[in-house]
Structure formats: C-alpha cells, structure tokens
Amino acid sequence: MDMWLEEDMQEEIDLAKLEGLEAVRMVINSWHHDLFTWDLEKISNETANKLLQGDFNTFDDLLNYDSSIESYNENITILFRRLKNENKEIPVEIIESIFEYP
User: Fold this and answer.
1) Residue 53: which residues within 8 A CB-CB, separation 6 or more?
2) What is the pLDDT of residues 26-52, one digit of tens each?
3) Range 64-84 burial, b when 16+ CB lie within 10 A, else e
4) The organism sits in which domain of life (predicted)?
C-alpha cells in the first residue's frame, strides 16, 4: 500500500515541478503521510552554491550553515523529502529540486 502511495505522490510532485514553485507548494500542502513528507526550505544563494559544490555531508549541516548567515537574499527554495530509514531508524532527507525566483 505505501509503495503505491509513494508512487502516486511522486508523480504529482513531478508534474507540479514542471509548473513551478507555487504548484509544488499546493501539492505538498494537500498531502500528509507519516512515511512520506515533502517540504520546502528557503536558503541563501551562498548556501545553494555550497550545496551544488557538494560541501555538505548532511541536511542538518546545510541548515546549520544557512542559519549562520546573517543577511542574505532568500531567492532560492529547495524541495526535499524526508523518509524514515527503517534499518537505522534515522530520518533521511533527499533534495528533489532547487527553485530560483526573482
């Protein structure tokens, strides 16, 4: 059952990504499931550059770095999903997309 739900949700997310950030926001706000959580996070340009260069080992590293920046332009939003790793009982975050807007 959960596998089908994840596929349906992923398909809706993928279609929304083609339409842009607001479409994605509408889709993720319409779904909730304990095992599959999608979210949006605004980050700085500097953080986005470091992300693309592979400078972060974990999602928490990315968030901690971004929160340490005092003043920045938040015109980057990342779409990520959080999964529960059943083997290690830890959450796993997967960045799905990066959106830039003026």
Assistant:
1) none
2) 988 887 655 568 899 999 999 999 999
3) ebbeeeeeeeeebbbbbbeee
4) Bacteria
CA distances to 3, 26, 40 from 44, in Å:
34, 23, 13
Say which amino acid occupies 35.
L
Q: Is this prediction's pTM over 0.85?
A: no
Please state, as a whole number, how many other Cβ atoms lie within 10 Å of the Cβ of residue 28.
19
Q: Which two tokens stand for residue 88?
A: 């290690």
CB atoms within 10 A of CB 6: 15
Beta-bridged to residue 38, according to DSSP, are: 81
Phi first, then psi: give them for residue 68, nearest 5 degrees. -85, -10
